[in-house]
Amino acid sequence: MIRAMLWILGAILLGGIVHLSTVLVMPQAATQDAYARLLPLTPVNAMVPLAAPTAEASIMPFLDPAFAAAVCRYDLSAGAIKLNAPLSQAYTSVTFYTRNSVAYYAIDDRAAGRRAIELDLMTPEQHAQVPEGEDVTAADRLIIESPTQTGLIVLRALAPEPGLMPMARRALANAQCRLGPVQ
Q1: Whole-angstrom Cα distance, residue 98 to residue 160?
Q2: pLDDT of 60-97, one tens digit each?
Q3: What is the number of other CB atoms lying within 10 angstroms of the CB of residue 120?
Q4: What is the CATH T-level fold of the domain 34-179, as seen in this structure?
Q5: Structural domain boundaries of the chain?
Q6: Cα–Cα dist 77/57, whole Å
Q7: At 140, is the pLDDT very low, low, confident or very high (cuts 50, 70, 90)?
Q8: Residue 139 has pLDDT above 70, yes or no
Q9: DSSP label of 53
Q10: Partners of 178 in beta bridges
Q11: Which are the contacts of 36, defined by CB distance < 8 A and separation ≥ 6?
């Protein structure tokens, strides 16, 4: 009886280790991650609206059809990125992902507190080179440090009713993701 319980406990422990290691390795082993799927569709450092998801086809899995989405595939090797995202009337969010699909920062319209989400995205090295201005405070601009040189910025705007989807798409169409000097 005790011997059988030890075998069962060992099997459960081994299964847990295999499961945990598989979950941790899978993001690096996946060949069709979000970045790879968007590579042929999006130019570098430019905001591109995504097509509405359908039951038959979707660029990214699990996209909510109530949200209009746009993506910026960024590369910080040439300099910092300036993001300007006008807010939609219902809800707007911006999420930052590394090249390996790890989310490292998110902000929504309620946290922005303005009519647009404006921020600078840069590496820690680029941030260290930004001159400290006496008249510029942290409240004047938001600086996000990216842990990697490349990644994705995903902008989403809610359309609470299907008839409001054009309004959400217009808000995303005016968003900008471009290389720019940091003041």
Answers
A1: 29
A2: 777 888 899 999 999 998 889 999 888 888 889 999 99
A3: 20
A4: Immunoglobulin-like (2.60.40)
A5: 1-30, 34-179
A6: 33
A7: low
A8: no
A9: P
A10: 82
A11: none
Residue 135 DSSP SS3: coil
Percent of the chain whose predicted confidence (pLDDT) is above 70? 92
| Range with top average pLDDT, 61-70, 137-146, 150-159 | 150-159
Distance in angstroms between the alpha carbons of the first and the last residue of the chain: 72
pLDDT in tens, 6-18: 999 999 999 999 9
Phi, psi dihedrals of residue 160, rounded to the nearest 5°: -60, -25
* CA–CA gap between residue 65 and residue 77 (Å, rounded): 34
Burial classification of residue 86, based on how many CB atoms lie within 10 Å of its CB (0-12 exposed, 13-18 middle, 19 or more buried): buried
Helices (H), 30-123: 34-38, 109-112
Percentages (nearest 5) of helix, strand, coil residues in the chain: 30, 30, 40
The pTM score is: 0.79
CB 104 within 8 A of CB 96: yes
- Tokens representing 97 are 């992902």
Q: Of 139, 126, 121, 133, which is closest to residue 82 (Cα–Cα)?
A: 121
Separation CA 84–CA 60 (nearest Å): 23
